[in-house]
From TrEMBL:
Species this chain originates from: Stylophora pistillata
Protein name as catalogued: Schlafen AlbA-2 domain-containing protein
InterPro entries: Schlafen_AlbA_2_dom, Schlafen_AlbA_2_dom_sf
Ranges where the Schlafen AlbA-2 domain occurs: 22-167
Taxonomic placement: Eukaryota, Metazoa, Cnidaria, Anthozoa, Hexacorallia
UniProt superkingdom: Eukaryota
Amino acid sequence: MARYASSLLINVNDLLHLQGVEKQKVEFKKAWHGKQGPRGTYWQVVHTICAYANDFFNDNGGYIIIGVDEKETWEDSDDRQVNYPPVGVSAKDLERIQREILGACRAQIKPDYHPVLSPEMVECPDGIRKHVLVIWAMASDNKPHTCKENEKGRDLYYVRQGTETKMATPVQIEELLRQGNKIPFDDRRAIDYGKKSLTFNDSQRSEDGRSVLESIQNAHKLFEAMGDVTQTNSYVAFQFACCKFDLYINTINQTDKCHNKQHEKHRDRQADRHRKDLIPYLKEAEDYVNKAIQLTNEEYKHHQAMQYRQLGYIHSQLYLIKKSTVAKITAFYDKARKYNPKIKISRVFIPPEYQSQYMPTLHSLESPLSDTSFEW
């Protein structure tokens, strides 16, 4: 019987008996079914790989062992037990199964994630030897990941809860995004934009060295991958709107810097044309804020204040390309003040003639947004 060099840092027999490893880190599957049928193990396996990669509870991933089935009843409810000797995997099928599993990961999990596959030999009593295939899914450095729900389904986030793989809840998705450090704004920024700049210098970098614009683009892709959650959860809808607005702002800033050496009139025409090309971002941002407003309970006045302020920010940019009016901008700010009289509004997004009304104190005028390149 052929032997393979192990890629594991733990003995396979310890995995089978859950020794030296937490039970939630091991999943047993009697067989691998390469076809995407509803009753096979194809989707169960790729969902669990995705969940281990997301590593929501910081368990550092886990293992899926193909060729082993659990007992239906255990002597101790807290003691998982497997049927021994294991069913095993035919030696002639090992390479095919590995190709199919890696192919399934490439096809279904985004961004790309590749677990370690290690064929193992289990030495059983009475000289019986069985092949099993261990899938070692380590915590991903590129998380969070999504996986197709089924052949025609949505891309969803998955997490491990105890010994089960579950679809992530909206709260868990929010935490996954924060853990992955993919979104360039945090909860504090979402709660009060007045305390943080909405525009960035070209030289600014996120913690991992990528440009802010690139980080926002990556965040936008993640929100798109969340599917229906952006339409049904007020917090996620609002964050998606803010992401689209930030994408517009930072793309404009980047373009302005690229053209800063051109003749002034030509540069202004270029900037106006570029703003018009990017109008869809603003319109989509407005749609998502309105969706968030519809989903927000009237009792959450603080949230509604932020939502109406964001509509004011969006219309301040539409006004620059003659797609909105000062009256609309101030109406949104007034409504934001109605829900939260103390809400701060960034000076750069206030028409000059109204700045004393919405920024009455000298402290407010010291906002870092004063360095922005926008002109009314």
